Amino acid sequence: MNTNYDWIVIGGGITGSSLAYELSLKQLKVLLLEKDPIADNATVYSYGGLAYWSGTTELTRRLSQEGIELHRQLSAELDGDTEFRELDLLLTCPLDHEPKTLAKNYEKFTIQPDILDVKQACDLEPLLNPNSISGALRLPHGHIHPQKTAIAYQQAFLRQGGRIIYERADGLLRKRDSIVGVVTDKNTYYSPNTVVCAGGLSRRLLTNAGIPNNIFFTHSLLIKTLPTEIKLSSIVMPAIQQRFTLEARAENLLQESGWDDYQNEFIESILDAGAVQFIDGSLCLGQISAIATNPERKLDQRLGENSIRQKISTILPMLSNIPGTCKSCLVAFTNREIAVVGNVKDLAGIYLFNGFTSTLVFAPPLAKHFANWVTGEDSKILEKLNISG
Ligand SMILES: Cc1cc2nc3c(=O)[nH]c(=O)nc-3n(C[C@H](O)[C@H](O)[C@H](O)COP(=O)(O)OP(=O)(O)OC[C@H]3O[C@@H](n4cnc5c(N)ncnc54)[C@H](O)[C@@H]3O)c2cc1C
User: Fold this and answer.
1) Closest ligand 1 atom to Cα of 44
2) 178 in a domain, yes or no?
3) Structural domain for 104, as ranges
4) Residue 142 near residue 85 (C-beta atoms within 8 A)
């Protein structure tokens, strides 16, 4: 069971699945450890949007371009349907904000939004309530089914000879200044290299192993609906997204150590009303983001569902009563530019691939760069990102 592996990847969301696949393409012997046989993570509950317009630096512009090009051919590469398509992103502008003024916040991005008045916005998205918006911003966006993409990566990984074991990583095995393996709830697995891709639970795993890190997380609440005949033509999100402000506030308000103190929990939540429809007609309606330092904390799902439906009823009234279930998950984030990627300073054998912004567009190309870096083929991008550098 506990054969030696070249790499152990902890976590089977989009980050761990794409990385396990890319490492296995390098002929490395890879074990993917995932705690849940039935996925219940941020990837499953994601909108699936690919914000390839959102590069702001040479690095993020390059990765955005690589990301969208990768997704355009990924179904063929993995021989598994990711349901990729090009889909408009409509950013709704509230009544008290001019679309032209809000567009200024988007000037830093590679691709500038089209500014739409109410009629143009409703022509593009007939489900929008014209009385609830002053207009909208339109951006070209990509869309995938995030969980089908993670599964396609995992299936391709298995065909490459990779191994998936459903066990929970409870600890990292340390020998002097190296991590040499992973202790799970059932076994111990040995490897000279372990990479943590455990999403919002990464912080706890690393902190328990005495590894300082700047991976944080929000608790997210959203509604997954049953398939419906009603057709949403775009991805709808607010032009002013409060989630980013919440993440920045949490960083300012909480000392690093505050994250590991569950007694004095800091709790604050916001609601960014948004909706996306998948190819099967089901919808994801979202989204509440809350900062609570205890990853086990349960948010009130009934209250959350009511608040989401109420807010959706003003923007997209026809979607507000579609039957569905409120779900929750943790979403990792960091105060670094893109993600926490690279090896840990002063400790051999342990790597991080985590805390992404625009995860679905950035993680897959970065998984390729990561695999090139560890095999010594090309290290330029990883050197730019490396957390121990
Ligand atoms: C409502 C919503 C909408 C979103 N929309 C978008 C979007 O449009 N575009 C975008 O790019 N991003 C979006 N995101 C964010 C994106 O979904 C996440 O950033 C991404 O899915 C995170 O992937 P991950 O692999 O890091 O984490 P996860 O998907 O959470 O996977 C982590 C995995 O690690 C496993 N794990 C944890 N601890 C252990 C352990 N100890 N042992 C073994 N396994 C473990 C978990 O079970 C889980 O399967 C959205 C998120 C939400 C909630």
Assistant:
1) 29
2) yes
3) 88-140+215-334
4) yes
